Amino acid sequence: NSGVVCLLRPLLLDVVPSIRQTAALALGRLADYDVELAEAIVKAGILPQLICSLPQENRYYKKTAAFVLRAIAKHSPQLAQAIVQCGALEMLVICLEDFDPGVKEGAAWAFGYIARHNPELSQAVVDAGAVPLLVLCIQEPEIALKRIAASTLSDISKHSPELAQTVVDAGAIAHLAQMIPNPDAKLKRQVLSALSQIAKHSVDLAELVVEAEIFPVVLTCLKDSDEYVKKNGATLIREIAKHTPELSQLIVNSGGVAAVIDCIGSCRGTVRLPGIMTLGYVAAHSENLSMAVIVSKGIPPLCVCLLEEHEDHIKAAAAWALGQIGRHTTEHARHVAVANVLPTLLDIFVDTRSSEDLKTKASGFKALKNILQKCTYLPALEPLLHEAPPTIMKHIIGQFSKVLPHDSKARRLFVTTGGLKKVQEIQAEPGSLLQEYINTINNCYPEEIVR
């Protein structure tokens, strides 16, 4: 309000280096504070002045100038675009080539804030020639520089397969993979994130990540004391598992499913989410892979997530994963049913509170339907007869109508537990599929028992 921005502008061209640098630092701190101040600095035409003499400046000024650019770019794609338009990317590339690690770090940070907004800005960073230099930065000895360079490569890779391919072509994967065992937790987070952002786009990119021999070393990250390392490690495994049965099989063979299950059991909240999704993706691919999840005792921790977690999207993911495990054969469905999952899924579906998140309701319904269409384990189905709404009821009755005609023991039990009585109370439309199922069940018994 006092017009300080306009007063600082001429100081960027002062003959005394320390005055130029301190003026830039003041502008950086103002820009960092909020979006309106950042916009005011751009409107004042300060950017061209800030970077005009950058190549000749000392390292302190370069670091500060990179800080100003980063502070402006972080707020919005429009402000980041303003930095691109004033020719700052070419100057930042010069900073990335500097001998001083602090200057490189500042430049890498600014590139990250520009690239993260959208594919167009990310492409501008690529076109400026930053990617090969960032790959050189992750090979430098300074941990802080490695971290920020890995983070920026992650921000560039996330938008599209083409941008991820650019990072791959610069040879990033091998160097990132080598850093997975690094003891520095913050570096590990960024490395795992970058590999995830590359692997998520396509089968080919995921295979390139796997070929860098990240298994079994990445599994150690699932036991890390740092929650974000755990989460990012599980996310990387998820992004690989989702693509093909072969990649999922590779994860199973390296002990990945057991490690993910342990990880889900040892943490809470959103850290669990990528692990839950991984089990769902692996199980979805084939009967054998689903059975691998069952044999590794994957069902109990997923049930725990359904009961313990309060956030709807985590419940929804757990319901979805259980549905993927149980949908293949009667054997798969039986394993899920024996774990007493069905009543919990039914509760989620009929619970009025979970109606706020339609996704949770839908996941509960879909998972139930997937499992019920294969489940012939009647002791698990019978309790549902007394609570299920009509949309679910027809699937349950359908399973009884398949099993009862061929199983005399089940027929006797069905009478003594009150199941047959419940069936007589159901109002079905004449000629409907539900009515057919009820008729099939009634035909298994003498008329006086039905009456």
From TrEMBL:
InterPro entries: ARM-like, ARM-type_fold, Armadillo. GO terms for biological process: epithelial cilium movement involved in extracellular fluid movement; filopodium assembly; neuron projection extension; sperm axoneme assembly. One of its GO terms (molecular function) is microtubule binding. Gene3D superfamilies: Leucine-rich Repeat Variant (1.25.10.10). Pfam families: Arm. GO terms for cellular component: acrosomal vesicle; axoneme; extracellular region; microtubule cytoskeleton; sperm principal piece. SMART domains: ARM. SUPFAM superfamilies: ARM repeat. This is SPAG6 protein. It comes from Prunella himalayana. The gene is Spag6.
